[in-house]
Request: fold
Amino acid sequence: MLTRGLLTRFVNYMQTVIAVEDLRKAYQPRTRKAAEVKALDGISFGVPPGEFFGLLGPNGAGKTTTIGILTTRVLPTGGSATIEGIDVARDPVAVKRRIGVVPQMNNLDRSLTAREILLFHAEYFGVARQAREQHAQELLEKFELGERADEKINGFSGGMVQRLKIARALMHDPAILFLDEPTTGLDPQSRRAMWDFLHELNSKGQTIFLTTHYMEEADQLCQRIAIIDHGKLLALDSPTALKRSVPGGYLIELQVRSEDGAAQSFAAGLSSFPGVVDVKPEKDRVRIYADRAEGLLANAMRLASDQGVMVTDAHVAEPSLENLFLHLTGRSLRD
Amino acid sequence: MTTLTALLHRDLRVARRDLKYSLLRVVLQPLLFTFIFGFVMPRLGIIQRGYTAMLLPGILGLSMTLSSMQAVALPLVIEFGWTKEIEDRLLAPIRISGIAIEKLIVGISQAIIAGLVVLPLSWLLMGVHLSLGWWDVGQLILVAFLSSWLFAAFGMVVGTLVEPQQIGLVFNVLLAPMIFFGCAYYPWATLQVVPWFQAVVLVNPLVYANEGFRLALTPQLPHMSPWLVYGGLLVFSLFFTWVGMRKFARRAVD
Reply:
């Protein structure tokens, strides 16, 4: 079983649909004195088919530049990027045939109705008339745009615009779907609906490449996440593994009642448990930062009863990507 | 190729939907000009009746070149600078130069349509007597094509250089002098009385278009030599196409 799993992973690795190798993008300064701006400073990663891959980072980290290069809209100044083995800079037309792109901005054709936007997009890609009409109708219904399909998009809500942008990108059945910050500006309900939809799409085998600065989004949707900042790749792994990699990522909070002094020695005892990184005792509360939570809570309870400390409440907080980002960069993702 | 036709199909659909506005834009100005200069002023005796024959080619030239230029420049300014709508087409499976060429074809087509509307209209209103042989019709078609191409390419240069908030400026600072110094309302040959001015206006591509129409429609009246007309049209067309396509590619790919 194990070898089979490894083999699958190896085969997947060989079949990466997106391969990025030491990718760089530098912008020439406007004035001679200003320094060159490095939007991407040598990042590498690969995405196997069927994966939901996320690029997480704060604004200005290089996410849009990366997606811009992969979707042929930005030329790299170093390194290489291939889509299904095709170099994006050398053969952009062949790459464009294989990708569907949902950009951050609303770039829907304002001169056309929703249905026409889908139909013309498919026509650009040479989809036959009957096939595109059928596909457009299906997508309009699926995205709950059917009622306003024959209106221009001027009065559409943010959620409708977003759904139409995704429908458009799917009109030519792309091998890879690129989404640049797809839920920015959406209300929580629309965001949740969008997540459900993207999740479903991926479960049917669609390879998805997503950028976001929302940790919850990357955490909920992606099988693997690349964290980037200042054009550099800081970490790349599954959300669970990434979170586990934060030292002291788990937070166990105990509400305690005890005699004077007992709490202090309780805290000291806790510090000696394996995996515990830091213990912060307060008046009626003890905070334990640990690398892992398994068994620690039970041990802590045992120690408490031995030392005559009464635990009235316990809470375990899982590590978050926010903590990881803080750990990696020393600053918060929200800044 | 299919992508190019699909792009043209999209522009045709949009143009047909906005047909009444496009027609109004194309027809109104020449109609006003024709009415004042070709009808009112000759009757007031302020200008000679023969002036209308000098005016007709200029009116046609202006209508066609401005249509062509606007058809290319305005959407580009707005789509590159403001709505980013063009991204949709930049992601179509076609080379960037293919999209630029499609824009030029659209500009040329719109100019041809403008010409087909304006020429009979002003002809009728002004009552100019034109006797065109096959040779003149051939010249007319050639001049019409070259002028439309030149200004479609010029529109691409303007459309890729100008920011949306500068559109007004372009019309006042660039287009107004071009129109007034463009030999639309007077033949270039008559400028020989002010030699320096006659030389200076040669940098204005509109001069070659208007003189070209004069050459084709009213060969009996003073006009620029055919060599200069076709040479000027061709050189400016190639130059603006080269610059425009380069600028387009730079705007399209970062």
Notes: DSSP finds twelve helices and 14 strands in chain A. The two ends of chain A are 45 Å apart (CA to CA). The mean pLDDT of chain A is 84. The CA atoms of residues 151 and 277 of chain A lie 59 Å apart.
